Fold these 2 entries.
Entry 1:
Amino acid sequence: MQEIERQREQVAAGLEQLARLMQAQAWRGEAGRPMPPVQASVLKLLAGAGPGLRAARLAERLGVTAASLSDTLKTMEAHGWVQRRPDPEDGRALLLQLSRKGRAQAALKLQPDQGMAGLLQALDEADLAALLRSTQLLVAEAQRQGLATGLRTCIGCRFFQPFASNDAARPHLCGFTGQPFGDLELRNDCTEHAPADAEDFAVNRERFRQRIPHIAE
Ligand code: SF4
């Protein structure tokens, strides 16, 4: 086996350990009620979703199928955390939103020392920037392999221009804000995100992966 394959194996083992930790709800001292990670993710997403989200869109944002999310939503409705109301833009559709009880649970899960965020307290800025870059690449690869859609990362955004700025500390440009930014400011769930078309996505993914400076066309 080549050295790089051995290294990938070790990284995969580490990521799988973390995933198992999440699945086992092994967080010690986590505030609020222990719950499966997908329920915690629904709470966090709906807490930042303004008037609410349709179930299909929520599933897309989570990278799961609507069918697999259905039981989770039923459980959360039974707990009184999630409620449905008509979508003002289409009376036949329903929006999911948090109830008062759900917002209280979400606030506990969003505390900076909770869950994964609590573990990330151990990383300095350089490590966080490297991890943000890596998660962008991993999500992009998952999208390329057809494993996920609807995630709102910079790489998948039509406003993203990797390595398009002359500022070495902030090498990327965001076409939405018009500002350069560095890896530490990469967004994994950005409200201003607009999906890139397939061709731009492929070009940006390679440019970002290989750190190729942007050449103005
Ligand atoms: S709009 Fe958001 S997701 Fe898109 S490039 Fe700018 S910061 Fe990244």
Entry 2:
Amino acid sequence: MRHSVRFYLGDERIEIASCDPTGTLLDWLRLERGLTGTKEGCAEGDCGACTVAVGRLDGANLRWEAINACIRFLPTLDGCQVLTVEHLTRAGVPHPVQAAMVEHHGSQCGFCTPGFVMSLACLAANGAAPDTGRIEDAIAGNLCRCTGYRPIIDAGEAACRDGAPLGSAGIAKRLGTLRDDELVQVGDGERRFLAPATGDQLVAVLADHPDAVLLSGGTDVGLWVTKDMRRLDPVLHLGRVRELRETRDDGATLVLGAGVTLSDARPLLAGLHPHLDELLRRFGGEQVRNAGTVGGNLANGSPIGDLPPALIALDATLVLRGPQGRRKMPLERFFVGYRRQDRVPGEFVERVAIPKLRPDQIFHVSKVSKRFDEDISAVCSAFRLTRDAAGLVTEARLAFGGMAAIPQRAGAAESVLLGRPFDERSAADAAAALADDFTPLDDWRASARYRLAVAGNLLRRFAIEEGGTGEPTRVAGLLAQSAAASSHA
Ligand SMILES: Cc1cc2nc3c(=O)[nH]c(=O)nc-3n(C[C@H](O)[C@H](O)[C@H](O)COP(=O)(O)OP(=O)(O)OC[C@H]3O[C@@H](n4cnc5c(N)ncnc54)[C@H](O)[C@@H]3O)c2cc1C
Ligand code: FES
Ligand code: FES
């Protein structure tokens, strides 16, 4: 067992034996290290003012990820390099992203600027092309209230065009020396932080501490501390467990470990269907996707999480692991009540297996939220229909988030579609049946009436898009159309 966490802050090797298990990286940087370039705006992962770059080894390669320091617990950085805006300027020479921000007038009051600089620096360091859409994605988790985004995007394009490396020579090798298979345990004398390195260690630690708080990317759990002021003990971090990060393609099935980040899952899910790419693109901002995990999104049991409806519609199977071994269940059976799942103390979500679409199946996902980017769904829908040679529906899986206390299928609407062609008429009949399936949530995000109307319209949108009328039904398509129209004007 190792009783310290080790990481690099810039080029300085840090080793900490005693720390608050849920102290944030942001507080440590600002209060302990005096690195006040990293700002606190919202303390809940929304504004990006606290963005820092984290370098981590992916096999032998070094990857740069922008993350929100405000909701990231310090001991989770074991094995990484952290760079703040202070680490970018070398020998008085600004980093190319900083220079481009000056050149393109990308800053006014400056409060948001370090966060934007760090997001763009990660993007450029990973070799992204100077593509406007990609840059917009990279900064969707950063808010600016002064400058407007065009000059910042211009600066991002210039930095990506000219190239902008991050970190110092040899850092990948130095990070390699921090790798080990020890169970890490640190704390502050009162509360403990435990970080196993293997699945077997995780099972053993969880058997000893069945009520430990499981922590993966912390994009939900972080807010329990920064917003709800909860004192968590012990905290059991899953981020070092390598098995949980594994992915596998079995030909007919895609298997994602629970610890696979949303950023890493995105290209794999995009390979199943382009709507899943769009869903993941609109999942939080880049910082949230870099930290948040597939397992965290399923296990938090939120009725408005984005992955559950999509994976339920695809008939995914969840694998849970605990002291008694492994058990499998259809994902839809995992959710048993509001934020309650079929998971006993000592168990954790190990992976999810997602069947790929067959040629006789059609699929559709929509997310409806108040803001296009970085917002939680009011309603999320996912539909998979199987049709026979005559085009009649033989199986319907219509799954919704935001319509009930749990992510749930619409049994009544599904049965309306069976044995019929899928067209605007059958979709309208199924939409009408949704009132028998759901008494939707009624909250500040959306009223029950709105949710029911939207859910029906999403089903009708599926029929319109499937019918190939060419009518634009997606915000992204409408935005692209209006951008093309204004560039031709
Ligand atoms: C700014 C912001 C934007 C967001 N936007 C979205 C969005 O667009 N769509 C959306 O769906 N969500 C969104 N979220 C919520 C969150 O990012 C996701 O739910 C994310 O997938 C959680 O993953 P995590 O690894 O961070 O989970 P954590 O915060 O680490 O954990 C979440 C819960 O799951 C449990 N848990 C984690 N891993 C396991 C496991 N392997 N086995 C058992 N239990 C486990 C934890 O104990 C905890 O109860 C957003 C959050 C923020 C802060
Ligand atoms: S302070 Fe707003 S995202 Fe961290
Ligand atoms: S420059 Fe003032 S908030 Fe962005």
